[in-house]
Amino acid sequence: MDFGLTEEQIILQLKARAFVDKYIKNEAIKRDRIQNAKDRIPWDWIKLADKEGFRTMGVPKEYGGSDQSILNMCIVGEEFGVGDLGFAVIMDQCWKMSHLFKDAMTREQKEKFIPKFVNDPLATTAIGISEPDIGSDHQGYYDHKDIGMKTTAFKEGDNYVLNGTKHYISNGCMAKLYFITARTDTSKPLSESGAVFIVPSDTPGFKPGFFHEKSSQRLATNGCFHLENCKISNDNILLGEGKLVELRSKYMPGSKAEAAATVLGVGRAAYEYAFNYAKNRKQGGKLIIDHQAVSLMLAKMIMLLDGARLQIWKAAWLADKSDPDAKIQGLISKVRASEAAFEVCTLATEILGGAGIMYDHPVEKYLRDSVSFLHSDGTNQVCSLRVTKALTSEDNSKIYGF
Ligand SMILES: Cc1cc2nc3c(=O)[nH]c(=O)nc-3n(C[C@H](O)[C@H](O)[C@H](O)COP(=O)(O)OP(=O)(O)OC[C@H]3O[C@@H](n4cnc5c(N)ncnc54)[C@H](O)[C@@H]3O)c2cc1C
């Protein structure tokens, strides 16, 4: 085994770190406090990230991207998460969807959609599954005809006509290209009726609604939008009737590890801030880092972060090899990293004492940000249940969602 990064990976890591130091680190907290969600979208950072090649990292080389490995996206995702979780999520939504570009699109679809994404420096992508009545149920732990997905896609000649509402969608109402789930037959369970459609934002009937206001990932949008008689041609079916389940096998192993890396970055930022604070703050006649109680908290933080990073890199390494174990390891990495980041941010708040919740310091923001991934990308409870379900199944390949 070799735990070291290659020279190329170290260069990529340092490039991402320099990008964050130059543009994001000192600005993020100010932007986080802007009142209106629409005014917080960091279009300038997206453009700069495009210029540096980060936005299109997951796109195949023949279409103008750099086709980076999942591990490399995790390395960059952690650095971006140190800067600002919302920005990291905006980028990660592009990386996640690039798995669908590569592994689910037909050649015709690739030629139709990827150049448009690559050539527009402000283009982002999004995936719309969640609805007011379908949250954890779409994570595939449970499958029944009465499941709450209400978005329908009924066939009409050569088209499918989509109707419904999606909510909480990352990059929602700002992205140019959407992957949207719907059911073609409401009398059948999702495993038989679920499908995925490619929907550009300028499709008639695609109606942006509003941005959810929230306390976490404030620079990323969570949009609510509607589909009103939105006509989608057969050419834009990503996964046809009953193939929704393939969505997870095509992009989940990599996407969970990538998401985990972004929240790990938040934990690292909190640790770094608390460490420097403890080296400068004096109480009881000495620096607080020299009080054993504080130094133990710092050690715990490092252990949590280090363990989560190892798990993420393992999951990414397996996903890059298309190893079947990557699916479970991806889920585990998301749970472990989000729990680690949340605990590290909580400890950072304690090390800062009263300053932990004051707006003079960024730690209260890190804590708010870290909370989001306890639920985003599937709640940790449901992700954990899926791990057990996979391990207790006689045939993993037949499990819904795997
Ligand atoms: C920041 C953020 C970004 C998001 N981005 C996207 C996105 O880009 N695209 C998208 O489609 N969705 C997105 N979501 C939605 C996300 O996938 C859901 O919030 C998540 O799956 C949980 O659904 P819910 O919020 O409806 O909670 P619920 O499903 O209502 O869960 C409530 C509670 O019940 C528990 N629970 C539910 N079902 C079970 C069960 N079977 N067994 C045991 N416990 C259960 C949960 O663990 C939780 O504790 C995002 C959410 C957030 C917070």
- Biggest pleated-sheet summary: 4 strands, mixed
Overall 3D geometry? globular
CATH architecture identity of the largest domain:
Up-down Bundle
Number of domains: 3
- Tally the helices: what do you get? 13
CATH H-level superfamily of the largest domain:
Butyryl-CoA Dehydrogenase, subunit A, domain 3
What is the quaternary state of this protein? Answer: single chain
Number of strands: 10
Instruction: Give the bound compounds.
Output: flavin-adenine dinucleotide
Radius of gyration: 21 Å
Helix percent band: 40-55%
What is the residue-averaged pLDDT? Answer: 94
Order of helices and strands: HHHHHHHEEEEHEEEEHEEHHHH
Strand order of the largest sheet: 1-4-5-8
Binned strand content: 5-15%
Low-confidence runs? 397-402
Distance between the termini: 28 Å
CATH level-1 class of the largest domain: Mainly Alpha
Mind explaining what this structure looks like?
With 402 residues, the protein is of the alpha+beta class. The protein has 3 domains: 7-119, Acyl-CoA dehydrogenase/oxidase, N-terminal domain (Butyryl-Coa Dehydrogenase, subunit A, domain 1, Orthogonal Bundle); 125-243, Beta Barrel (Butyryl-CoA Dehydrogenase, subunit A, domain 2); 245-398, Butyryl-CoA Dehydrogenase, subunit A, domain 3 (Up-down Bundle). Helix 6 (85-103) runs antiparallel to helix 9 (244-280). Mean pLDDT is 94; it is low at 397-402. The chain starts with 6 loop residues before the first helix and ends in a 10-residue tail after the last helix. The protein has a 4-stranded mixed β-sheet with strand order 1-4-5-8. A 4-stranded antiparallel β-sheet has the order 2-3-7-6, covered by helices on one side. Strands 9-10 form a two-stranded antiparallel sheet. Helices cover 50% and strands 15% of the residues. It has 13 helices and 10 strands. The structure holds flavin-adenine dinucleotide (FAD). Flavin-adenine dinucleotide (FAD) is lined by residues 126-130, 135-136, 139, 141-142, 168-170, 217, 222, 372, 375-376, 378-379, 381-382, 385. The site of flavin-adenine dinucleotide (FAD) has 23 residues, from strand 1, strand 3 and helix 13.
